[in-house]
Each structure stands twice: as C-alpha cells, then as structure tokens.
Design goal:
Helix content: over 70%
Main location: membrane
Shape: elongated
Number of strands: 0
Number of domains: 1
Organism: Streptomyces roseus
Membrane topology: Multi-pass membrane protein
Radius of gyration: 18 Å
Order of helices and strands: HHHHHHHHH
Structural class: mainly alpha
Largest sheet: none
Strand content: under 5%
InterPro entries: DedA-like, VTT_dom
Subcellular location: Cell membrane
C-alpha cells in the first residue's frame, strides 16, 4: 500500500474502487481514500507550510475531486442500470441476501426520508447500492436523484479525506492516523445505519 500511495496510480485505483463499490460494497474504497490522504499529510503535500515533496505524492485536492466524481459516476451507473434492468435485475438482487435485507430496511426510510437519505446512506454499508438501485428501479427523475448524489459524494469524500489528512497530522504516525481514521469511518457507517433503521415517529391521530 505504501508503494501504491507514492505512485500516480493511486488516483486510478481510488477512482475504480469508488465507482465499483456501488456494485461490490466489499471494496475498501473508503480505506483507500483515507490511506492516500494520510500519505499526503505525512509527506507534507498539503498544509499551511509548503514542503518539498515528490511529484507523485497524492495531492489532497485532486484526491477529493476524484473521490467525489467517482462516487457520483458510480451512483449514476447503478441508477441507469436499475432503470433498464427489469426482471433480470430483480432476480440478481434477490440472490443477494445482504442486499435484499438492506433493500427491505431502507424501503420505508426512502419513503419518509426523501433526498436526505441518499446522503446518509452513502456512509452505511450497502446503503449507496440500495439507494442508487432503488431510485433507478422506481424510475425517479435524474434531476431528483443527481443533486443528492453529488451532495452525498462530496460529504463522503470530504469526510474520508479529512479523516486521513487531519488524523495523520494530529497523531503524527501515518499508520496510527490511518487506523484511527478507518475506525471513525466505520463509526460513521454505524451511525448512518442507526439513523436509517430508526422507526418513523408516530403521528398523532386526527381529532
């Protein structure tokens, strides 16, 4: 991983991982973003005091833009696939026990949470997959889904990059900053799952 973060190929690996983890949630895209940001912080690639670093060290701004853009592209790919998938996609989802359970849990939340759920689900395990596929499957308009996807991508990428960068700056050792940041990312995912699963508030009966 250390040699990868010192190469321009880290941008390609991050982009591909973020795009594909909407279909394969097990891909460690968040860990890759955090690790690259930690490498940039450790090398002094960003910050108030300029430091001479090798050109191939990840640039923090480029990493943020690539992670955000890749997140939106992956969302839209899943959205379009679900729009055109029909019964074949339904069968594929049904074969995945984890995705089926997540789809059931998020069904009610989608109805009551609206666009904000797209942002929250971006941090939850498999939440991005379910929301993107669900929005396409229910034939939502692109103009309804895309702005929330962009906001979700910016929030997730900004949080992940900030964790890796500032965590390494504050803790000093890149490995320690990365480990703590990954735990914080998982904590955000657990919080997102809790918010999504929270039962809807009971409405008072009409008088």
């Amino acid at each position: 991983m250390g040699s990868l973060t010192a190469s321009p190929w880290i941008y390609v690996v991050v982009a591909v991982s973020v795009v594909l983890d909407v279909f394969l949630p097990v891909l460690p895209s968040g860990v890759l973003v955090i690790t690259a940001a930690a490498a940039a912080a450790a090398a002094g690639a960003a910050g108030p005091v300029p430091v001479a670093v090798p050109a191939q060290v990840p640039d923090i701004l480029a990493l943020l833009v690539i992670a955000t853009t890749s997140s939106v592209l992956g969302d839209m790919a899943a959205f379009r696939l679900a729009q055109r998938g029909g019964a074949r996609l339904d069968r594929a989802i049904a074969r995945s026990r984890r995705l089926t359970r997540a789809h059931e849990r998020l069904g009610t939340a989608l109805a009551r949470g609206g666009g904000a759920l797209v942002v929250i689900a971006r941090f939850a395990p498999a939440g991005r997959s379910v929301v993107s596929l669900g929005a396409g499957k229910t034939h939502r308009k692109v103009t309804e889904f895309l702005p929330w996807s962009v906001l979700a991508g910016m929030a997730w990428a900004g949080y992940s990059v900030a964790l890796g960068y500032f965590g390494t700056q504050w803790l000093g050792a890149p490995w320690l900053g990365t480990a703590v940041s990954v735990m914080a990312l998982f904590a955000a995912g657990a919080l997102a799952v809790f918010v999504i699963r929270r039962p809807a508030p009971a409405t008072a009966p009409a008088a």
